[in-house]
Amino acid sequence: MSLLKRLLGIKDNKSEQKSSETSKFMPVKKPPVDELFMMNFKKNGGKFIYCEDKEELLSNFQNILEENEWTGQEFYSHDINRDKTFLKDSGVTFTTDKSANVLIGNCEYLIANNGALLVCSNQIGEGKLADLPHNFIIYATTSQLLESLGEGLQLIKKKYNTKIPASITTLKTFEEKSDSDFLSYGSTQKNLYLLLLEDL
C-alpha cells in the first residue's frame, strides 16, 4: 500500500483479508518503514508534509514561507547549486551566511526507528548545529527512508568511499523537551519542516 493511502487511512482489501487470517498468537508485525518514520518524526516534534509530485512540493514550500512570514528573506544553504536546482521556480534567494533565519537543504537519509534525519557536512557545512539557523526546511524523497542509523552509516561509507564527509550527525529534537527528558540532553533543538516527495 502506498504512503498516501496509509496517511489517509484508505484500507486495501487484500491487507484486510490477511489481517483477519492472522492468529492472536502470531507476533505483532512491525509497521512499514515509512509509517514508523512518520510516527517517530512527529513524536519528536517535526512538521511533516507529504508531497505526491514536484508541483505539490513547491506549493507546500510556498505555503510554509507565507505561514511563517519568511517570503522575501535570504535562506542559508550549504549546497546552493543543488538547492537552487531542486527548488527551481520557487523564487528563493540563497546565501552562505549562517546568520540567516532559515536553512534550506536536503539530508542523507531518514531514519525510521528514531524519527531522525541523518545529515553531514555536505548539507549543513562543518561546525556545530547550534551555529546554524533555528528554522530548517528539509526536502527529501521516499527512497531516502531507512530503518536504522547503522544502515544509514553503512550506506554513507559505501557512497563516499574514501572521502567520508565530516560532521555526520542526526537531527531529532524538534521541540523543547522537559528537563526530565535525559535522552535529548545535549541535542540542539530546531524548528523543522520536512517536505517528503514520493519517488518510488
Secondary-structure map with pairings?
Layout: H1 3-8, H2 13-21, H3 33-43, E1 47-51, H4 54-67, E2 74-76, H5 80-86, E3 93-95, E4 102-105, E5 109-111, E6 116-119, H6 121-124, E7 135-141, E8 145-146, H7 149-160, E9 169-171, E10 191-197
Parallel strand pairs: 1-10, 2-3, 4-7, 5-8, 7-10
Antiparallel strand pairs: 5-6, 6-9
Describe the structure.
With 200 residues, the protein is α/β, with parallel strands linked by helices. The protein has a single domain, classed as NagB/RpiA/CoA transferase-like (Rossmann fold), CATH 3.40.50.10420. Helices cover 32% and strands 20% of the residues. The strands form three sheets. A four-stranded parallel sheet has the order 1-10-7-4, with helices on both faces. Helix 5 links the parallel strand 2 (74-76) and strand 3. It starts with a helix and ends with a strand.
What count of helical segments does DSSP give?
A: 7
> CATH superfamily name?
NagB/RpiA/CoA transferase-like
Summarize model confidence as the mean pLDDT. Answer: 85
Report the C-alpha radius of gyration, rounded.
18 Å
What structural class should be given to the helix and strand makeup? Answer: alpha/beta
Architecture per CATH nomenclature, i.e. the level-2 architecture: 3-Layer(aba) Sandwich
Instruction: Kindly provide the name of the CATH class.
Output: Alpha Beta
Residue stretches low in confidence (pLDDT < 50, at least 5 long) are: 178-185
